[in-house]
Amino acid sequence: MDLVPLADGSGGLLPVAGGAAVNSAVALSRLDVPVGFFGALSTDAMGVRLAAHLQTEGVDISLVHRSPHPSTLAIAQVLPDGTHFDLYDESSAGRALRPDHLPKLPPSIKVLVFGGISLVHAPAADAFEQLMMQAAPGLVWLDLNIRPSVIQDTKAHQERLRRMIPHASVLKVSDEDLEWFGPLPDLRPDQLLLHTRGADGIIASLGTWQYSHPAPTVTVCDTVGAGDTFNAGVLASLVRANMLAPLAEIDRPTLTQAIANGVRAASFSVQHHGAQAPTWKDIE
């Protein structure tokens, strides 16, 4: 659950359903993509609220593992250089997920999206890494989404991400991610790299192809979930065009339009409290 500052300057905090995977799942559902969430949801009051939020938004939670451990809490601070989080994740439901909790994925699933703090701490990080390695051929999306405040062993987390990056079809990074992670390993010609740069827009590359797209000028409320919403905007556009994989075969106009829609989706979100996902009408 994200606690974000109220816009009235009172110092109050507004509880908003959050977490990278939840944000992306809800955004995909609002963009008419059939989507499910897998992870551990607490049985505490916040976990119940998160489950209800996902169901209300049309996200399938039939694969969710319910846990007696507490929900993760994130307190957002809106600073001149962006939104920063104080994360309270010790002994959380998310961390406690184990490899033996992994579900058997239905064959109808075409895309898996990974990233964020779920990849930081064992046993949950081990479970998600195992799930990626077991994934059938298809589109695998990895958003590094680094949160240094919860990373206790930098080397171990970097090594895990280096193991996972070669299995990703799409790798999404931000300026902050690269500052923490360092130089990326060489990517295959069929791996799409999406480098978001906040107000400076995005740079995309796929093999020898490179494309940059500017960010529109908007009034920013907060940047909570902007990257998650960007992911959903791009992915939903590819789904809408019936062009998911292999990425190297996607025509460039379709890919550039998908990236533009991702930027529009993120730009919509930052004008609202928390991760506020758009519909297609909002994007268009």
Topology:
Layout: E1 2-5, E2 13-16, H1 20-30, E3 40-42, H2 45-56, E4 65-67, E5 73-79, E6 82-88, H3 93-96, E7 111-115, H4 124-134, E8 139-143, H5 154-164, E9 170-174, H6 175-181, E10 192-196, E11 202-206, E12 209-213, H7 226-240, H8 252-269, H9 280-283
Helix pairs in contact: 1-7, 7-8
- Could you say how many structural domains there are in total? 1
Query: In order across it, which strands form the biggest sheet?
Result: 7-8-9-10-11-12
For this structure, the CATH topology is UDP-N-acetylmuramoyl-L-alanine:D-glutamate ligase
- Quick check: average pLDDT? 92
**Assembly annotation:** single chain
Number of strands: 12
Tertiary shape? globular
Radius of gyration from the alpha-carbon trace, in angstroms: 18 Å
The CATH class is: Alpha Beta
What is the end-to-end distance? 29 Å
Largest sheet, described in full?
A: 6 strands, mixed
Structural class: alpha/beta
Order of H and E elements:
EEHEHEEEHEHEHEHEEEHHH
CATH superfamily heading = Ribokinase
CATH architecture level-2 label: 3-Layer(aba) Sandwich
**Percentage of β-strand residues:** 15-25%
Q: Extract low-pLDDT stretches.
A: none
Q: Number of DSSP helices?
A: 9
Roughly how much helix do the residues carry, as a percent range?
25-40%
